[in-house]
Amino acid sequence: MGSTAGLTDLAGRHLVVSAGGTREYLDPVRFLGNRSSGLQGYALARAAAARGAEVTLVAANVTLPDPAGVTVVRVETTAELRAEVVAAAGSADAVVMAAAPADFRPTTVSDAKIKKSDDGSAPGIELAQNPDILHEISTHRTRSGSVIVGFAAETGDATGSVLDLARAKLARKGCDLLVVNDVSGGAVFGSPDNEAVILAADGATVEVPRGTKSALAHVIWDQVATRLG
Ligand code: CTP
Ligand code: CA
User: Fold this and answer.
1) Looking at ligand 1, which residue's alpha carbon is closest to its atom 24?
2) Partner residues linked to 71 by β-bridges
3) Is 78 helix (H, G, I), strand (E, B) or coil?
4) Which H or E run contains 100?
5) pTM above 0.90, yes or no
6) Which residues are in the CB-under-5-Å shell of ion ligand 2?
7) Does residue 133 line the site of ligand 1, with CB under 6 A?
8) CA angle 148-153-156, nearest 5°?
């Protein structure tokens, strides 16, 4: 985005971004996880740093190199992600939850590697729901005037269109902006490009045409900057 070169509109701001996908361990070597690459979160962190912000990037299992000028905190599980995001959010002007936390975790983690049995049977896995970090930081704000942003990859279903479901999710989460990817036609995972609709709690809708994840990152920070005043 040539138009953002030299922009320092986020100077003096502390911005927190989460990226990647969490892992929930079954035993020391196995986990439940997801396909989030971390590319969009890293693009957000780089874009914010380029615009002068102090950036904390909480990265869950991302294999990308640390962006220059960004404080990177590495985590694995949703519990660790929650602890680091909640701690950083306390002094943040804005938080963007680009990470994909696992929705469920095994209720018990075995200290030893789970062995196969000779009879060909497989163990069941009992799951518990993970805490909703976005909902927590949106509904227990420690800093007035902060801007909180969520992401949602949605497919339409019998109960509503992608945007219907996304509007409902925005309200449920209590965040200020929700960046919505329509993944009905295929996944965005690992792709350098992204296209999205940004829904705002104040009713605004911003359509972002297909482009780089960096371009989308800059549009998201534009929306955040406007609301920070
Ligand atoms: N999120 C979160 N904590 C969780 C799950 C999700 O903070 N335990 C955040 C994600 O980082 C994202 C937003 O919530 O910014 C929406 O994630 P999504 O998976 O779409 O929402 P869920 O509430 O988990 O709903 P779903 O059942 O559709 O997966
Ligand atoms: Ca989810």
Assistant:
1) 103
2) 56
3) helix
4) none
5) yes
6) 103
7) yes
8) 125
